[in-house]
Design a protein that fits this description.
0% of the residues lie in helices and 42% in strands. It is mostly beta strands. The strands form 3 sheets. Strands 1-2-3-4 form a 4-stranded antiparallel beta sheet, with no helix packed on it. The chain has a 4-stranded antiparallel beta sheet with strand order 5-6-7-8, with no helix packed on it. A 3-stranded antiparallel beta sheet has the order 9-10-11, with no helix packed on it. It is globular.
């Protein structure tokens, strides 16, 4: 069964999507727009978080919080720093990864986070954050 939801307020290319409970986070990962939109499946309403510090990040959930890994800052510099949305602000709660990368693949399994690939990382680069 397919169900229509209200149209996303800001169109998204190169996006990442993750879920926490009843919320779906859609991260627009373009250099000039570091937008994170949130859809609440219970209220059927969209909201927007403050701009994320980086664009082209990988997205995952760590300890029930949205965490973005890698990407670039507003000057185009690639980063290895994970940033986490605490519900009030973006904070660096975890140590930087060894490899800076744009658009990595990110997967969390419990408290273990696997980060792989991404522009600038090399095709064989895989790191773990635990």
């Amino acid at each position: 069964k397919s169900t229509d939801i209200p149209e996303v307020p800001i169109g998204t290319e190169f996006g990442k999507a993750v879920t926490i409970n009843e919320r779906v986070f859609i991260c627009k990962n373009e250099a000039s727009e570091r937008i994170v939109q949130v859809y609440n499946v219970l209220t059927k309403k969209w909201s927007t978080l403050p701009p994320s510090p980086y664009s082209y990040s990988g997205a995952t959930i760590i300890k029930d919080q949205l965490t973005l890994i890698g990407g670039g800052d507003t000057h185009g510099y690639t980063t290895s720093k994970p940033v986490t949305w605490t519900g009030e602000e973006w904070l660096e709660l975890y140590p930087p990864m060894h490899t800076a990368r744009h658009s990595p693949g990110v997967l969390a399994i419990g408290d273990l986070v696997i980060v792989s690939g991404g522009e600038g990382a090399g095709k064989d680069t895989i790191e773990f954050l635990d």
